Amino acid sequence: MATRRKFLQAAAATVLTGRAVRAADKQAGGAPVGNVPKGKYSIPDGAKLPTRELGRTGVRVSILGLGGYHLGIPEEAESIRMVRRALDHGMNFLDNCWDYNDGESERRMGKALRDGYRAKAFLMTKLDGRTAQSAAEQLEQSLQRLQTDVVDLVQIHEVIRKDDPERCFAKGGAIEALVAARKAGKLRFIGYTGHKDPDIHRHMLDVARANSFHFDTVQMPVNVLDVHYRSFEREVIPVAQKDGVAVLGMKPMGAGLILESGAAKAEECLRYAMSVPGVSVTITGCDSEGVLEQALHLALDFKPMPDDERRTLLARTAKAAQNGKWEKFKTTHQFDGTVQHKQWLTSARL
Predict the structure, then answer these.
(1) Which of 46, 85, 124, 261 has a beta carbon 3.0–4.6 Å from 153's, enabling a disulfide?
(2) Residue 307 CB coordination number (10 Å)
(3) What's the per-residue H, E or C state across 22-60?
(4) What is the pLDDT of residues 299-342, one digit of tens each?
């Protein structure tokens, strides 16, 4: 099976000419909630998503955030409409990354944030660089693509190796560049992400504490399978809460693989993820206007999942979660962009 990034980069090009990639996209783990037709869900004019506190930042963010990777899949005009519609309905948390679709996701988001839309957004992007030089250079590229002077939150992407924390905090490491950029007013908050092993996430928090550094955010998988296997929900969220670090949930549908497994439906996946205590925002990828409408509908009508429904759902998903079969981002390198492209750790060139 092709890697997620290489497959979806090719798929994105195909969409621009034929839009015939849905089935294959889902197979690669790229289709987050299936083929949802536009107009299936009616979104009331003026309706706004609920918000939550983002840790100790003093900022409130929407309970559901718009993922950046999938904005590179539809035609550019549709992706721009999606960003603006999300913001018009109060989905203010925007996710992105320096490497998504060779920078195209950031470029499209930058275009969408013109005409006053930047003021509506809490803008986040991620950097792969582990050295101060590469992180600083990648940040400058991201600022240019996003057409902004300041990014609200910059996160170190894919902290998935056991020595990543030490590399980031070493002299001349990524943290050095991010702190300098914060002092220069180019970013407001600093965080990190990862999807491999909760032990590595906890180690990053330990190393930060040892260096008298406080992360504002930490991003991790939160979904109906995670709770059963190498669980970030069980092993990292309590530590982050104790340290006052805001939790960002991602992969609510396991990069689409939970849907492929048949263990749960898209609506259940999103409702569960948004209901996990301690999560400030759940980031979900939307590759069409119909998928965005479904996400908006679920977030606008959101009520925390009752305990009995949660127990029933988790009992049903336990078998699918065994050995991480459907969480391949934990058990394989299929989703590890910085493993497939090691040069990203030390270079700003895509």
Answers:
(1) 124
(2) 9
(3) HHHHHHCCCCCCCCCCCCCCCCCCCCCCCEEECCCCCCE
(4) 999 999 999 999 999 999 999 999 999 999 999 999 999 999 99
Beta bridge partners of 151: 187
Residues 250/244, Cβ–Cβ less than 8 Å: no
Which among 168, 187, 164 is positioned nearest to 336, based on CA atoms? Answer: 164
Distance between CA atoms of residues 261 and 76, nearest Å:
31
**Burial of residue 42, with CB atoms counted within 10 A of its CB: 0-12 exposed, 13-18 middle, 19 or more buried:** exposed
Its pTM stands at 0.90
Residues 6+ apart with CB under 8 A from 159: 165, 168, 192, 193, 194, 200, 201, 204
Structural contact between residues 194 and 159, judged by C-beta atoms closer than 8 angstroms: yes
Q: For residue 234, give both structure tokens.
A: 């069980």
Closest CA relative to residue 103, chosen from 162, 150, 145: 145
Retrieve residue 170's tokens. 């070493």
CA 122/CA 44 separation, integer angstroms: 23
Candidates 342, 348, 338; CA nearest to 133 is 348
CB-based contact 181:139 (threshold 8 Å): yes
CA-CA distance, 332 to 329, in Å (whole number)?
6
What tens digit of pLDDT does each residue of 36-86 get?
999 899 999 999 999 999 999 999 999 999 999 999 999 999 999 999 999
Which ranges constitute the DSSP H helices of the chain? 4-17, 22-27, 76-88, 104-112, 132-146, 164-169, 174-183, 198-210, 232-235, 237-243, 257-261, 266-275, 289-300, 307-321, 328-331, 337-340
| Pair of tokens at residue 103 | 């920078």
C-alpha R_g of the chain: 18
